[in-house]
Prior knowledge:
Blueprint: H1 3-12, H2 16-39, H3 47-71, H4 78-81, H5 83-102, H6 108-123, H7 128-148, H8 152-208, E1 218-225, E2 233-240, E3 243-252, H9 257-276, H10 282-296, E4 304-312, E5 315-321, E6 327-329, E7 336-338, E8 346-347, E9 361-365, E10 371-375, H11 377-380, H12 391-403, H13 407-422, E11 431-438
Parallel strand pairs: 5-8
Antiparallel strand pairs: 1-11, 2-3, 3-4, 4-5, 5-9, 6-7, 6-10, 10-11
Helix pairs in contact: 1-8, 2-3, 3-5, 5-6, 5-7, 6-7, 6-8, 7-8, 8-9, 9-10, 12-13
Amino acid sequence: MDKSLKAGLISKNLHRLAQLEQILFSFGFIMSIVTIIRYGTDLKNHLFELFYYLAYILTSVHVLLVSMHTKHHPEWPTWRRNQPTYIAIFEVLILSIIVLYQSTNPISPYTVYTNVCIIAIVMLSVEPVFFITLLFLFSFIIIYRLWSHGDIFIALNILLTTIVISALTLFKWNSLIKEFRLEKIRDTHLETMEKELELAAFVQESFSKRKMPELESYDIAYYSKAMAGVSGDMYDFYTDDEVLEGAGIFDVSGHGIASGLVTMLVRNIFQQEFHQNEEKELYEVMEIIDKRIRVEKRNIENYLTGILLRMKGNTIELVNAGHPCPILYRKESGECDYFDADHKYSSTVIGLSSIDSFFQQTSFEMKSGDEIILFTDGIKEAMNTTHDEYGSSRFIESVKNAVIQPFGNQIPSVLADINHFTNNAEQSDDITIVIIRKK
């Protein structure tokens, strides 16, 4: 048997040692009390029985002390860390031989049978070859003694118990080997998947990372964090040298590698179609993008929600494809609220073949100091440890507090509020936020 497999199996079953200690202590304690009560004033003539049962208590204490010492040495080899189990089995077998050959108490054969049953419990969790041999050796000594004294029924019971438990031990050990091997295969597979996920996340990050030039009319801040490895969120900026011509934020349905691959697939589509269709209305550009995504993603079921912006001087054109509506901050009036909260200009999602797509656009003006805040639903759906969502009202209040701060501090301020609410609870979705400010 492979050494690592053997070590893993033995280590996995060491928890039964605690059960063995409890059994030995309980049996010794109970039988000691029974012996004292049974013989009473005649106890001095039955000290052997009392000392015998007290030996179980000493054995349990011995096993406990050895196991405590073993736990302080995790670097020891497996066989040495399993010493407490070996000691317990060996000492119980020795006690069985002693009581049969030294005691005249008629209950002794039943005590020995109990010992064999105790050992049988432990046999199910240790390496079988050595201990089956050991158990059979001691069992034959015990059976011979019982048989010679006429305790044939108990002798046969011990023989039957030894055979049955040995067979069960071999069967369970074989099952454990299969289970352990399957676990190793699963762990190897998970490790491979984690490495592939890390690689996919690295490729995605490299694919989306680009140095933004100093823009003439706008300041941009953004933050994105995947729930696990690869993100289904995507943001992009469409520039011509130092001129910001447009921007977009998108959220692919689902999580993991599939949604991450879709973001890499559609990014080029948005880039190409946005720049190649400058003369068309923005909703028409979105229609072209939607049709192309439906064709190119083929049988992939993921769809996208998103917002596409196009800058024309002070005018911002916007198409919202089933995405959370952005927040618009007006510096002059101090007004800060969700733009199109009634979803008058909301459109269908992108890339879903089972529906007829419909896109419409709207526009608004931006003055110096005004900001538009784009985000994915992972922000409003962030949950705390009691599974309460952050929600729209908390988020808008956080944004209102952030927009009055220096531009570079705004996203950190929002994230601090979210983290304070979630109290470091596990992230339940990808999170992305983009802030665009008119200079």
